[in-house]
Specification:
By secondary structure, the chain is mostly beta strands. It contains 4 helices and 14 strands. The protein is 11% helix and 36% strand.
């Protein structure tokens, strides 16, 4: 692709093609997925796979409102160092879009993305109980060593190394100050693609004790709903908090949020992971 459009922070290297083809109501573009954005080795980190549907929808959006939500289903692992086909069309309702990512006819991710402005934050959110607790010790993990977000040895120069900090009752509490390199198109704001990424991993680690007790090595993201209540600021002391809601067979359900110590909720994600005995 000679001309491309940034899909997320420029430093990540996710790029949409400027050339578009239209058919049956869908607008199709290429998406370049570079190396280094691992979840499991060689596979695009799950939150990034879900979150990149937002910029795919944005290029089709004519309203310009802030991102409300992304509701994504991950059908198959998204390979790194690859070129995918994306397609987007309007869904029912103003500012709503259906998005699909595929490779060689195989559907990888499907999502509904809404650009309708921020919703009010929920009242009585239990995750806010983690907004002021002491930070647990960091515990570097080896299940996903090259993970772009939580791995101790990411290959990407912008790898975050947000080591899990497990707390009591299947919780995670991590400090986070987002660096300028994670900015999107809006000044002083973390790109929504990165918010999706940082809210994915803690939902796995919140349930890791239960996964290991049941004989599983880890889990892969299968469903992800991300809701925005306000822009996530750069260079401010924030917290990423998560709680596991339970393991039912192979289905692990957990929630995570970006909050601050003033009990402000910026964004929240609900995740469904499928437990596995070996990683791809």
């Amino acid at each position: 692709m000679s001309t491309t459009i940034t899909a997320g922070p420029a430093a990540l290297g996710l790029r949409l093609g400027a050339d578009v083809s239209v058919g049956d109501g869908w607008a199709e573009r290429a998406l370049v997925v570079p190396e280094g954005l691992d979840g499991p080795p060689g596979i695009l980190q799950g939150g990034l796979a879900a979150g990149v549907t937002a910029p795919v929808a944005r290029v089709a959006d004519t309203f310009g409102a802030p991102l409300t939500s992304v509701a994504a289903r991950l059908h198959a692992p998204t390979p790194l160092a690859s070129t995918l086909r994306t397609r987007v069309r309007r869904a029912e309702g103003v500012g709503r879009y259906q998005v699909e990512l595929a490779q060689d006819g195989c559907l990888l991710v499907s999502a509904e993305v809404e650009y309708g402005g921020h919703d009010p934050a929920p009242l009585g959110l239990d995750l806010l109980g983690l907004a002021t607790v002491p930070f647990p010790d960091a515990v570097p993990q080896q299940e996903y060593p090259s993970c772009f977000v939580c791995g101790p040895s990411p290959s990407h120069p912008c790898g975050l190394r947000l080591h899990p900090r497990p707390g009591p009752a299947h919780t995670i509490v991590q400090p986070w100050v987002a660096e300028e390199v994670l900015a999107g198109s809006a000044a002083g704001v973390v790109d929504p693609v990165m918010v999706a990424a940082v809210l994915d991993c803690p939902t796995v680690w919140a349930g890791m004790e239960q996964l290991r007790a049941a004989g599983y090595l880890g889990a892969l993201l299968a469903g992800f709903r991300l809701q925005f209540y306000r822009d996530v600021p750069l260079a401010e002391p924030l917290r990423i908090v998560a709680r596991c809601d339970g393991l039912d067979g192979r289905k692990l359900r957990a929630r995570a949020a970006v909050v601050d110590e003033d009990h402000t909720v910026y964004a929240m994600a609900s995740a469904l992971h499928i437990a596995v005995t070996e990683l791809p």
